[in-house]
Amino acid sequence: MEEAGLLGQLGINWKLFLSQAFNFFILLIVLRAFVYKPLLEIIKKRNFKIKEGLEKAEEADIRLKEVDVIAKDKIKLAENQSVEIIKSTEQKAKVLDLQIQARAEEKQKEINELLKQSALKQKEESESQVYSQALELVKKIVAKTVELKPEAVDAKLIEKAVIEVKKST
Fold first, then answer.
1. 52-75 residues labelled b (16+ CB within 10 A) or e (exposed)
2. Rounded Cα–Cα distance for residues 129 and 131 (Å)
């Protein structure tokens, strides 16, 4: 009874202590079954989701870096293509410029040829007018010189004289 006395001196009733210990263990089992395990499952699920989210974030980061590299390659490719297009356009412009220049030179030659032809035609017309006027003038001069009537002067004689004058010039 010393034990009962020692517990009694401390103010502990062993029957009450046993019933409280029994209640505590029952409460511990109930809490473990209905609170601790579900709470532990919820924590595990959350940890799993967090871990999964971090893994997906790492994958997304890796993919983002890959996409960034691909985008940079595409941009470089596009820049190279644009440079090639510009060079090609410049070359086409030079060729077109040369073609336009050649056409302009051809047109200029055609215009010069037309001007030459026109000048020759005008010259021929002028000479024809001069010769016809000279013919009239010679006819008048011969008529005055001979002092004959203008009808008596032979037109063929005058024309012959004009042709000889033409040949001499």
1. eeeeeeeeeeeeeeeeeeeeeeee
2. 5
Which structural domain, as residue segments, surrounds residue 147?
2-168
How many domains does the chain fold into? 1
- pLDDT tens per residue across span 126-148: 988 888 887 777 777 666 666 55
What is each CA distance from 126 to 63, 131, 132, 140, 161, in whole angstroms?
A: 91, 8, 10, 21, 19
d(CA 43, CA 38): 9
Structure tokens at 62: 């890796």
Q: How confident is the model at residue 1 (pLDDT cuts 50, 70, 90)?
A: very low
Burial of 158 (0-12, 13-18, 19+ CB in 10 A): buried
Q: Which residue has the higher pLDDT, 69 or 148?
A: 69
Please give the single-letter amino acid code of residue 80: N
Q: How far apart are CA 144 and CA 52, in angstroms?
A: 133
